[in-house]
Fold:
Amino acid sequence: MFDKYEVNGLFDEMFDAPGQPRAHYGPVAARLRALGPGAFQKRVRMADVTFRNQGITFTVYKDAAGVEKIFPFDLVPRIIPANEWAKIEQGLVQRITALNLFCQDVYHEQRILKEKVIPPDLIYGARMFRREMFHVRVPKNIYIQICGTDLIRDKWGNYLVLEDNARTPSGVSYVLENRSVMKRVFPALFSAYKVRAIEDYPYNLLQCLKYVAPPHAGDPTVVVLTPGIFNSAYFEHSFLARQMGVELVQGGDLVVENSFVYMRTTAGLRRVDVIYRRVDDDFIDPLCFRPDSMLGVAGLMNAYRVGNVALVNAVGTGVSDDKAVYPFVPRMIKFYLGQDPVLPNVKTYICAEEDDRKYVLEHLHELVVKSTNESGGYGMLMGHQASQAEREEFAGKIKADPRDFVAQPIVELSQHPSYVDGHFEGRRVDLRPYILYGERVIVMPGGLTRVALRKGSLVVNSSQGGGSKDTWVLEEDTPAVPPSPLFSGESNPAADVIARPDATSPVV
Amino acid sequence: MTDATLQIQPKFPTHPPARPMLSRDADSMYWMSRYVERAEHVARLLLVNSNLLMDVGELAPTLQQRQWQTVLTIFRLDPAPAAAQAGGDGALGARVAQHMVFDPANPNSLLNCVTRARENARAIRENISAEMWECLNTLYWSVSGEDARARFEESPDDFYRHAMGASNLFQGLSDQTLPHDQGWQFTQLGKFLERVDVTCRIIETKFSILRSADNLMAGAMRNIHWMAVLRSCCSIEAYRRQHIGDMDPLTVASFLILERTFPRSIRYGVEMAHEAIAAIRAEVSPLAIDPAERILGRLAAQLEYSEMAEILGEGLPAYLTRLQNLVAEAGFAVQKSYFMH
Structure:
């Protein structure tokens, strides 16, 4: 199945050289070779049926064919050895710490603006900068409690930060569900590795949410606020509420009285102390932000500002994951922590700055241009693939509103084998780890590996035809399992039983 | 340090306070359960009716037409759209079946019942068990998926049986995987109110049709019809064990209305619905009097002490209509007290 596999001159996660898997991928490669296309296809179907029957879906907007879709799952796991992960983890902890200090600073003293590390008009011009949060004290001074930071690897295998998602990052439910499906479909392979567990994420999340409860709440009532079943991430909202054992509420279930928040229950009103809101700032309170919002709760911001309820993430964190602020994060890290960033950024041109803009307009064919106010892969120009007309259209937009755009050189994302029509082909991947900031910072080992399933595509977003993989972070640098002997004899594909040491098998 | 010892809390409280339930969640629990129950009745009625017509052979067209119309009448549907279904050609039975199974414009089609049950379940996934969700979601895909129509054409019987089986499984899972707290009580309430309502409609409709045709039919034919009525209520075996021999219409009616031990009888359903609402009220506001509880409590007591002769005195159709109105009133009262805060 790997016979025609091409490395394409990219960084390949599995192969060092054609036909030569990296040490930590040895057992996987051997297993997949032994399995053959028929048996692999059977497992693909098994996984698909599980996803559909369990309703593990997401909703695509602007899709006439039907709104509910299965997030395509690619069965070949992505594997990260312990030493690689240790560095990623260190970098992520550093980053979320700096981003939080930045939010605290920007909404209070603004030292970083006064000392001209970041131009003030960039911050004031950020659409997600919330004047309403100026001098508002947030519980424990934590703004970003849940962060999803997107990482990619360049041609040499270095991990780079592509962007931070500091508002309401989604996808963690698929990480947990992918893992449970993977264990069901490939039990022997899974147990051949020492994979770090991720199943405690919901527990950690709940602790993290309880940590910011107002002091008056003895045993705080935590809820998850969702826009409703038509939201693209509804499955995840429901999943997290279920896993934490808390209520999933919609705007209409909540009411504010005397600056306290209550939910409407069959027995009348009950106070709510912490809201993990999966509703954007704009929609959270029609009295404060968009008056046409039907998703929020009138008066919620008042209750929040006087400290009677905690909102997670805090309002206004969007200023820190603005695409135009992103290029300054390394300087933020230096400014607040006095450290050099562990995980570097991707080189970014800021169209609002004249030199950069000039460069961008001259090099559109070799850059990715991103709108600073869009996410999910919308509003992007892939310069090398776009037509001349598309490039000209974007040039016009950039000139009209330079603050709205940044550009990056096209990074050749690393590739990973994916199953395509009976064999494996390389497809580009990224990685979104999830970081929780409560009493301490906890990085979930692994995260969501997203795959651009279209051949040659660099866009991994689920809304743009991306899929996902299970991501295994190992407890050791290289697995102790010798790659071939364990699986080479396993020619009967139906016998995917858990390998146990016994008299005839000296391995493991 | 005696103060400190006094403050020691038991590590495992034996009676944690009942968890409050969102009104919207209660609403969805109730309707999810009602729609699952309704879907089961739709499937069963179609199954029984098509089998009955196979048994009795080629009936006079008018009688056959009436037989299919009962299915629509039971679900309070207008017969016109059904007749027009599928371009108006094909056998009447097939057209009614299409209308009752797949027609998106028919609010009580099997597809619509299952879809609404699932939509409700989707909104409260954190309140139900993974097993319940998977059961309902699988049923949904089996009636809405691409191959659903093909499987239906291949064997309508299997299709109906599958839907009924899924409903039974779902109800069993509700009993065995949910704590029997407020949320579960709302599913009980929805299930039994729906069952009582449909059972009333079945008896009412079938009796009026059969009474007008009774003297035209020979004994054997008559038995087959009354058996079909019992089958429509999933009651044939239970009835036979209690009443050996002839199918007497009044005994059938009495069994379906007043039988104490049978979970498909009206009396049993009203009692269970009353128990559910009483348990909900006790948890939510122990001292208050609940309007729905009063209606169902009175009705339960009345059914407990009623005799068939009294019911016939009032007239069966009038009696059944009054019953349906009371059940509807109880349903409205539940919505007002618990869902619309």
Summary: Chain B has a mean pLDDT of 87. Residues 23-56 of chain B form the longest helix (34 residues). Residues 22-178 of chain B form one domain. Chain B has two domains: 22-178, 190-341.
